[in-house]
Design a protein that fits this description.
It contains 13 helices and 11 strands. With 335 residues, the protein is an alpha/beta fold. Helix 2 runs antiparallel to helix 10 and helix 6 packs antiparallel against helix 12. It binds (2S)-2-hydroxybutanedioic acid.
Length: 335
């Protein structure tokens, strides 16, 4: 009897604590959890934008929505993340634009070598009607694009002393992202491309499974590639940017107020990350130069012209799949 009363007393105390924390008539509910998985480190443009998104969402919906961010392929790596979104095992991911070619051939436009002069041109194209339309190009496959996030221009690195001209990479093995355009790009150079997940690249470079890779300053620094490469050529020959994607069915089924709040937080996190991207890449470039481990080769006009010419066949090969109109629209953004 005494035992029962004590238990009842505890229950009442617990109920009182709950009603003090929640307004009358609102039942205490566990927050809705949104999982955001990505493959890079936190101190990168994508890592920072994801954390900003979490901060903004949790400020907008205190106690109602929680965003869990999993960086560095902790939850899903390259091989599984798109599938995981489609299965509903994760809600948001932000793969690089090179990783969508199984879902749409159009997005391959971003991988064409020397298409964009700089990140300002990439930004103009992404904001154009053609760029915006690409966000919707995978809805038929269950993926909705919510935003483009910037990283930066790609540089080329390898384990040789000299890396100035296309002939310097002939016969070498290069890690590439899962993109047929990038495969064709390295074949055009007479090199051997190997598709590898991002999480495997450092070890592959360290053990000599591959000789080189292409990436942004931010990834070359945060993944420590500069410690296991001898040369980095400042080619700026392509771009690594991202599309934040979600499961279209999940997104469309969210309560309208939550969807609107998430969209607003996404817009603000995008602006924040895209503002930071250039600064982070420049700082990482400087750190790599100062570390003095890999030599950073600045290229002259003639060198760049030689790389451009060597990669030209890639355009001809993919023009049909991507569409001449889309390529022309992207080219226009250079002006
Ligand atoms: C890569 O695989 O090299 C990049 O796409 C990684 C990333 O997300 O920046």
């Amino acid at each position: 009897m005494i035992h029962t009363r004590r238990r009842f007393g505890r229950t009442l105390a617990a109920a009182a604590a709950v009603s003090a924390a929640w307004p009358l008539g609102v039942a205490a509910q566990a927050p809705r959890v949104i999982k955001f998985s990505h493959v890079v480190a936190e101190k990168t443009p994508k890592g920072q934008a994801a954390l900003k998104f979490k901060e903004l969402v949790e400020k907008t919906f205190p106690g109602r929505v929680q965003v869990q961010v999993f960086p560095s392929s902790q939850l899903f790596g390259d091989a599984k993340e798109l599938e995981a979104v489609l299965l509903g095992d994760v809600h948001l991911i932000a793969p690089s634009l090179s990783k969508f070619d199984r879902y749409t051939k159009k997005i391959q436009v971003f991988d064409l070598p020397f298409l964009f002069d700089d990140m300002a041109a990439v930004d103009r194209f992404q904001s154009s009607p053609h760029g915006r339309a690409l966000l919707e190009s995978m809805t038929g496959r269950g993926l909705r694009g919510l935003a483009y996030w910037h990283n930066g221009m790609k540089q080329l690195s390898d384990n040789r002393e000299r890396l100035l001209r296309p002939e310097d990479v002939k016969g070498l093995k290069f890690r590439i992202q899962a993109s047929d355009v990038l495969e064709a790009q390295f074949r055009a150079l007479g090199a051997n491309p190997q598709k590898l997940a991002f999480a495997e690249v450092y070890q592959a470079l360290q053990t000599g499974v591959v000789d080189g890779q292409e990436n942004t300053w931010s990834n070359i620094h945060s993944q420590k590639y500069y410690e296991v490469q001898k040369s980095i050529a400042e080619t700026n020959h392509g771009v690594i940017d991202y599309m934040v994607v979600t499961n279209a069915k999940w997104w469309d089924g969210l309560p309208a107020d939550i969807r609107a709040g998430l969209a607003a937080a996404m817009a603000e996190a995008t602006a924040h990350g895209n503002r930071l991207a250039h600064e982070l890449n420049e700082a990482d470039r400087q750190r790599i130069v100062e570390a003095g481990k890999a030599r950073v080769h600045k290229l002259g006009r003639d060198d760049i012209a030689a790389w451009r010419k060597a990669m030209e066949p890639v355009w001809r090969r993919f023009q049909g799949e991507i569409g001449g109109d889309l390529i022309a629209a992207a080219q226009k953004s250079n002006t």
